[in-house]
Amino acid sequence: MTTSLWKLVGAAAAVALFGISEAEAQAPIKIGASLSLTGTYAKPGTYQKEGYEVCADELNAKGGLLGRKVEFVMYDDQSSTQTAQRLYEKLITEDKVEAVMGPYSSGITESVAGISEKYKKVMVSPLAATTSIFRQGRKYIFMVISPAEFYLEGLVDMGAKRGLKTIAIINEDTLFPKATVVGTEELAKKRGLQVVLREAYPKGNTDFSALLVKIKAVNPDIIAAATYFDDAVAITRQMKELNVNPKMFGVTVGGDIPEFYTLLKQNAEYVYGSTQWDEVLPYPGQKEFLSAYQKRFKHEPSYHAAAGYAGCLIYAEGVKRAKSLDADLVRAELLKLKIRTAFGDYAVDQDGFQTAHKMVMIQWQDGKRVVVWPDDLASGKLRFPTPPWSQR
Amino acid sequence: MKRGLLAAFCVLLLGLAVYPMAGTGYGIRFMLQLFMWIALAQSWNLISGLTGYVSFGHIAFFGMGAYTAGILIAKLGWPWLLASLAGGVGAMVLALVIGWPCLRLKGPYFAISMLGLNEVLRVAVSYFEGLTGGGSGLSLPALYASVAIYYSMGLVALAVTALTYVIVTSRFGLRLMTIREDEIAAEAMGINTFRYKLYAFLLSAVGPGIVGGLAARDQSYIEPISVFPLIMTITMIVMVLFGGKGTIWGPVLGAVLLFTLQEMIWARFIYVHQLLFGAIIVTVVLFMPRGILGVLQQKYNLPRTI
Amino acid sequence: MLGQVVISGLLAGALYAMVALGLGLIFGVMRVLNVSHGPLLMLGAYTTFWLFQWLGLNPYLSLLVSMPLLFLVGMALQRLFVRRVVDAPELSSLLLTFGVSIAIVNLAQLAFTADLRSVEYLTGSFVWGPFAFSKSRVIACAFAIVITTGAFLFLRRTRLGKAVRAVSQSREVAQVCGIDVGRIHMLAFGIGSALAAAGGSLVAVMVAIQPEMGQVYTFKSFLVIVLGGAGNYPGALLGGLLLGLIEQLSSLFLTTQVNEAVAYILLVLVLLVRPTGLLKGRA
C-alpha cells in the first residue's frame, strides 16, 4: 500500500515538475513599453504601439524568440514625464520585463533613460532623435532613427548645390526642433549659406503673421522650419496669405504625413518634408511589413509605426545573436550589429548613437510624396525653384 | 481616543520610514510622488484654504524651485539637498515679487493675474536659454537617489502639515481665516490684511519650491512644459477641495485618495480618465464644496484642528 | 511693415473682442468666470467643420447654425451646473467651469478624435498697396464687428437687453423691479456661448481645428476682460483691440515667443494703476 502510494506521489511529482519546466520554457518573453496613448503625443504614440504589435505578430508567427513567444507589456504614460518614470520603474521592478522600448518624445526619453540604466536593462529607443540623450555615457540605450540635427540636411544640400545663398531658420521652442535647427544652422554655414534670420516660436502658436512679415523683409532663398504638424500647416497657409515666396520651403515632422496634403490641398505643392521612412523606399521586407500592417490596422503606416516595428526587430536580432536574454550579452551584440530592415539601415557607435540610418526628403508633387533626396534613394526629381504663389 | 489616534499615526510614520527597504523601485517612486502631492496640496491650502485667495498659478513656485535647484546642481555642482532648499528660497522670492503687486487685487483679478504667472515664467525660461537650456530642457548629472529623495519628500510633506497645524492653532491663522470670511470687517478690526496675506503667500511658496527642486533631482531632466503645467495646479486644488479646504488633514486625505485612485483605477480606463477627472471636479464643487473632512467637521462637530 | 502689423493686430483684436464680450457678459451678469468659454468656441468651430464636410455649407452661413446651437447648449449648461455657483466664491465657479471644460474637451476627443481638421475655404489675401491681408481674417473681422454691434444694440435698445444690464448692476434691485433673474442668467450664458461659437466658426477657416484649440482663447478672453474691466462691456472691446495690437507688435519688435508674457506683464502693470481694469470694471 505504502509503496504504491509512494509511486503515485512520485509520478505526480514527476508530472508536476515536467509541467513546471514546460510552463517555464513556454513563458513568454516580456518586453515593456510606456507609450503616449493619450495627451499631446497620442497620435504618434498610438502608431508606435501598432508598430510593436506588427513586429510581435511577425516574430511569433516565425516561432518566437529563442523558442518563446514575445509579449509586449504596454502602459499609457499620458504624455507626462512623471507618469512615464513611474511606469518604467513598474515595468522593470514589478512586471519584470526583459527589456524596454523607449517612449515617444525626446523629452520623456531623456528623463526615463536613467531608469533602464539603473537596473541595467536594454532600452531600444525607436523615436528619440535628440543627440544629447545618447551622449551622457549611458550604456544600455540604443538609437534607431536619424538624429534631429540631420532632419533638414537634404534641404540644405539641394539648395547649396543649386547655388542658393540665404536661409531663414525657424523652429518651435521645444527639445527636438531646437536640436534640429542647431544642426541645420551648422550644415548651412558649412555649405556657405548665410543665415539671415533665426527665430523660435512657442509651442501652440497659431499666428505666424508677424514672423512671416519679418522673413519677407529679409527675403531668404530657403526657409527651413523645424516643426511639428499644426505649425507646419499654419505656416504654409499663412505664407500664401502674406505672399512669402522662397525658392525652397521645407518642414520637418508633419510635412510627410498624408493629412498635410488633405488639409492644404494644392497649397502643399512644392513643399519639402523630411521623413525617417517612406513606403516607396527600396528596403527589404517593406512589402511584408506594409501588408501585415494594412491587414491589421486598415490604414497606411506612418514612420512612427515603422520605427517601432524596426526597434522591436532590432532588439530581437540582438537577442538571437547573443542567444540569450542577458542584458550585457544583448548589449554587446547590439553595439556590433549592422542591419538593414524595412525601416532602413541600423548601426550605432559606442554610445548607442545611430550612425547609419539616412533621412530622406520628400516633395509634394501633384498630390503625391516623391522622394527627392538622397540621390541613391530618390524616386523622382525635385521641382525647383518653387514658383511664387501668384503663378500657381 | 486622541491617544489611540496618535499611536496609530506613529505606527504609520514608522511604517513609511521602513518602507524603502521592502518596496520595489516602482513603489518607492510612487510614494515619493505621493509625498510631493501632499506637500503641494498642503501648501496651496495655506494660501487659498485659509485666506480664500485663490492662487491659480501655484505650480509656478514648483517650477521656480525646480529650475533654481536644477541650475545650481547642473551648472554650479551644488549638492541636491542644499539646492532644493535654495529652490524653496527662490520660490519665496518669486512669491514676494508677485505677491507684492497682486495681493492688492481682489477676487477675479487676483485669480487671473496668477494664471498668467505660469505663462510668463515659461517664457522667461525660454528667454534665458543660456542659463536654463530653454526649450531643450536642463539635464542633471545622473544620480540614483530615489530612497534619499523619498525621505526628503516625506519630511517636507510632514513639515508643511505641521506648519499648517501650527498656523491654524495660532492667532496668525485666526487672522487669516478672518480675512477669508470677511476682508472688510478684518480691516475694520485693525488687521493689516495685505501684510498677513503676503506672509501666508510666502509660506505657501516654500513647500512647492523645495519639492520642485527634489522632483528635478529625481527626474534628472526638466523642461518648461513639464514643470509649469496648468493641470498640476488644478490637480492640487481638486485634492484640497476633495479632502477639505482649510482643514489640516484634508489636503493629505485628498492627495492620497486622488493620487492612488488615478494610478490604480484610471490608468485602466485610458481614454476616459480625463473625462472622469472632469466629472469628479464638477461633482466635488457642486455637492461637496467643503470636502470630505469639511462635511465631517460640520456633522460631528469636530475641532478646527482636523 | 509696421502698418501691416498694426492692421493685422486690429483685425485679430476685433475677433478677440467679440469672443471676450461673451465671457464678459457671463461675468457681468453672474460673477462667474467661465473657463469653458474656449471649449464652447471649439464646439462652434466643429459645427462649422461638419456642416462644411457633410453639406458643403458656406462656413459663414454656418454661423446661423452654430450660434443658435451653442446658445441652447449654453443655456442648458447654466441651468444644469452654473446656476449653483452663481453666488459662491469665485473658486467654485472657476473650478466648476474648469471641470465642465475638461468634460467638453474630452467628449469632443472621443467623438471627433484628436485629428486635425480644417475648413479649406477662402484662402488667399486681399492686397491693398504694400499690405497683404488674409481674406479670411478680414472677413472674420467684418463679421465680428457686425455681431458685436448687434450685441451692443441688443443691450442698449431692447427691453431684454436692458434687463440684462440691470441684473449686471444689481441683482436685488432688478428682482424688485420684476425681472426674472434666473431667466436672465440663462439668457446671458446662452448669449455668451453664442458669441464664443461665432468666434469658433470664424476661426474655423483660419486655424487647425482640434479639441484643445479653445484653451488659448479662454486665456485671451480672460486677459481681455480683466484688461478692459471685468463686467464692463465696452471695456471688452477696448481690451480686445489692445490685445490684438500688443501681440502683433511684440512679435515684430521682440520675438513671437514672448507674446503671451508681454500681454500678461502689461496686464499686471495696468491692474496696479487701475485695480479694476482700464474702464472701471466691477469687483
What is the element layout, followed by pairings?
The complex is a heterotrimer of chains A (392), B (306) and C (283).
Chain A: H1 2-26, E1 29-35, H2 42-61, E2 70-76, H3 81-94, E3 99-101, H4 106-118, E4 123-125, E5 141-143, H5 153-161, E6 166-172, H6 175-190, E7 194-201, H7 209-218, E8 222-226, H8 229-241, E9 248-251, H9 258-264, E10 272-275, H10 286-297, H11 303-322, H12 327-336, E11 339-341, E12 344-346, E13 360-365, E14 368-373
Helix pairs in contact in A: 2-10, 2-11, 3-4, 5-6, 11-12
Chain B: H1 2-22, H2 25-51, H3 59-76, H4 80-102, H5 107-127, H6 129-132, E1 138-139, H7 146-168, H8 171-181, H9 183-188, H10 193-219, E2 221-222, H11 224-227, H12 230-243, H13 250-264, H14 273-287, H15 291-299
Antiparallel strand pairs in B: 1-2
Helix pairs in contact in B: 2-7, 2-10, 2-12, 2-13, 3-4, 3-10, 4-10, 7-10, 8-10, 12-13, 12-15
Chain C: H1 2-30, H2 37-55, H3 63-80, H4 90-112, E1 125-128, E2 131-134, H5 135-157, H6 159-169, H7 171-176, H8 181-203, H9 214-228, H10 233-253, H11 259-273
Antiparallel strand pairs in C: 1-2
Helix pairs in contact in C: 1-5, 1-6, 1-8, 1-9, 1-10, 2-3, 2-4, 2-8, 2-9, 3-8, 5-6, 5-8, 6-8, 9-10, 10-11
What do you see in this structure?
The complex is a heterotrimer of chains A (about 400), B (about 300) and C (about 280). In chain A, strands 7-6-8-9-10-13-14 form a 7-stranded mixed sheet, with helices on both faces. Chain A is about 45% helix and about 20% strand. The longest helix of chain A is centred in the first third of the chain and has 25 residues. In chain A, helix 2 packs across helix 11 and helix 3 packs parallel to helix 4. Chain A is an alpha/beta fold. Chain B has a domain of about 200 residues. Chain B has a two-stranded antiparallel sheet. In chain B, helix 2 packs across helix 13 and helix 8 crosses helix 10. The relative contact order of chain B is 0.17. In chain C, a hairpin with a 2-residue loop joins strand 1 and strand 2. Chain C is about 70% helix and about 5% strand. The longest helix of chain C has 29 residues. Chain C is globular, with a radius of gyration of 18 Å. Chain C is mainly alpha-helical. Chains A and B meet through helix 3, helix 4 and helix 6 of A and helix 2, helix 5 and helix 10 of B.
